[in-house]
């Protein structure tokens, strides 16, 4: 299945972007890491496929990826991969993992409206929605172009709706069984929920890094700080 990636092909450290952004928005972080790559999830960005292709796609991914860095919905993909292929993923780095943060108010019935919004939003409005300012607008030009292509917006809307489902409990159960190190990175303006923080503190081998001043998309506003945080726990994998 065609997969778009940015960075070093075949690198063992792989970034799985969140919504509604693409691998391009992680390019500065990937460059800061060195020996890493970011890939668009199936049906998102410029990758083929869709949500139903996750199992087979993730199986192929972990064949040569031992450190998964998942952002938001990408954190869910990272946990699913680690759970389905025990022993293959040595380390999980979860950036703004939605299932450990405040429960959203959105529901599945919003899918159509969300899809329509994503199909039409401009990069300035999207930057303001994601970061609170328009400073990241230039970095979102490719994201906006991708969302206007084919079924990308519809796939993103479907996944956004799933974040308000019982999937959260399933992901937490799978993460609890992960035998390797878990590193959670969140922005100070987008913290873990009290229950999420307690959950992470209860894991046998986990750490939390807080990026001061960052929100749900720290790769757009604080790329070097994110790269430094990831590198602090990934040196042994290089």
Describe the fold and architecture:
It is a single chain. The protein is of the alpha/beta class and 238 residues long. The chain has a single domain, classed as Alpha/Beta hydrolase fold, catalytic domain (Rossmann fold), CATH 3.40.50.1820. 41% of the residues lie in helices and 14% in strands. The chain has helices spanning 27-33, 54-61, 73-84, 111-120, 123-131, 141-147, 152-162, 167-176, 194-201, 218-221, 223-234, and strands at 5-7, 13-16, 36-39, 67-71, 91-95, 181-187, 206-211. It has a 7-stranded mixed sheet with strand order 1-3-2-4-5-6-7, sandwiched between helices. Helix 1 packs parallel to helix 11 and helix 4 crosses helix 7. The longest helix has 12 residues, at 73-84. It is globular. Mean pLDDT is 93; it is low at 234-238.
Which properties best describe this structure?
alpha/beta, single chain, 7 strands, 11 helices, 238 residues, disordered C terminus, Rossmann fold
């Amino acid at each position: 299945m065609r997969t778009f990636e940015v960075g070093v092909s075949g690198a063992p450290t792989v970034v799985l972007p969140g919504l509604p952004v693409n691998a391009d928005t992680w390019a500065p972080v990937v460059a800061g890491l060195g020996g890493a790559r970011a890939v668009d999830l199936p049906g998102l960005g410029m990758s083929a496929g869709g949500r139903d292709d996750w199992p087979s796609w993730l199986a192929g991914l972990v064949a040569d990826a031992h450190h998964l860095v998942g952002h938001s919905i990408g954190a869910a993909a990272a946990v699913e991969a680690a759970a389905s292929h025990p022993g293959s993923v040595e380390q999980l780095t979860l950036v703004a993992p939605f299932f450990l943060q405040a429960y959203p108010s959105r529901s599945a019935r919003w899918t159509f409206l969300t899809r329509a919004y994503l199909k039409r939003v401009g990069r300035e409005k999207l930057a303001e929605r994601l970061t609170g300012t328009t400073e990241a607008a230039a970095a979102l030009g490719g994201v906006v172009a991708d969302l206007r292509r084919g079924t990308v917006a519809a796939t993103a809307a479907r996944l956004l709706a799933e974040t308000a489902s019982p999937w959260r409990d399933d992901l937490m159960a799978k993460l609890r069984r992960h035998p390797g190190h878990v590193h959670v990175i969140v922005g100070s303006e987008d913290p873990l929920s009290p229950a999420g923080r307690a959950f992470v503190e209860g894991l046998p081998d986990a750490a939390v890094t807080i990026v001061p001043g960052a929100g749900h998309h720290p790769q757009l506003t604080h790329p070097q700080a994110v790269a430094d945080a990831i590198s602090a726990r990934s040196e042994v994998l290089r």
